[in-house]
Amino acid sequence: MTTLTSTPRADGFRMPAEWEAHTQTWMVWPERPDNWRLGGKPAQAAFSAVAEAIARFEPVTVCVNAGQYENAAERLAGQRNIRVVEISSDDAWVRDTGPTFVLNNQGEVRGVDWQFNAWGGLNGGLYFPWQRDDQVARKVLQIEGCARYRTEGFVLEGGSIHVDGEGTLITTEECLLNANRNPHLNREQIEALLAEHLAIDTVIWLPDGLFNDETDGHVDNFCCYVRPAEVLLAWTDDERDPNYARCQAALKVLENSRDAKGRALTVHKIAIPGPLHASAEECAGVDLAASSQPRDPSIRLAGSYVNFLIVNGGIIAPRFDDPKDAEAEATLKRIFPEHDVVMVPGREILLGGGNIHCITQQQPAPQRG
Ligand code: KQY
Known about the structure:
L-arginine/glycine Amidinotransferase, Chain A; 4-stranded mixed sheet; 11 helices; binds 6-aminohexanamide
């Protein structure tokens, strides 16, 4: 595999929007017992359901550690459109550990391999060590025969950005300006690195992500593009909800922004489920480890319907067995009239700290012309 010393923009590559055609979606098999309860068994069932839902629309590759290879291969055996490959990892968040694919208009696909520090390294990160996670992107690109750009010295997670594929990127200050990611870089330097690696011209900075998001406010759990110049924002009208001020602040920024093509944004809203909390029994099933996240029923979970994946012809979104599920499904169907909206159980994934978008990484199809 080639590691390039230029940048995607200099080479004529850009990050496409998620709704552009995919070759496949990548996932990583969950097993970490200090993150996933009961040795990861309920999470493995939940991830399998997500993989099967995606596989109705496009191929899925599931990466798995050697010790779980047999189990994953057996559990997914016979599923059309799903392949299992052995790749070591520390946990299962391929949105953040996998490559961000970029493409040109001559049919080539390459990948950006961001430096990864487990959402904050030794300054509030979620586990240690994370070396295997940091190697996932390189291995994925090697398997696919894609050239690689490595951002040594620049930490970023794929879940902290969304793009419209037309020059605009949305992110949060809470995450990208956090001292535990790139304390040596200021806002302008970070914008310049994003511009060079994704070929974007405009960054829309939301102040914060969702309350209690373990990632320091990843945008993919709070706000996403649904088509050019249209975004979907997690929303509450409840002034007592700690998300209220976050939603108001994000809306203000979005309403006052212009994208890279000079367009104003249409902002759709989708209700935040819950408030959701893990039960005492769910928390008791998680192994204790010095460096891992506390699990306690008093901690509000950062549940969000925004954490969905757009696939070829489909929307794969979480449901939480919450009264707001039906309204969320109706909202997604209204916003994506040409996609099949498939709601998949998301609670088990949420208990681990994320949701469907966080555990998937789309590989765009080559484009010509
Ligand atoms: O949501 C994500 N993108 C990652 C969450 C990691 C949580 C680990 N407990």
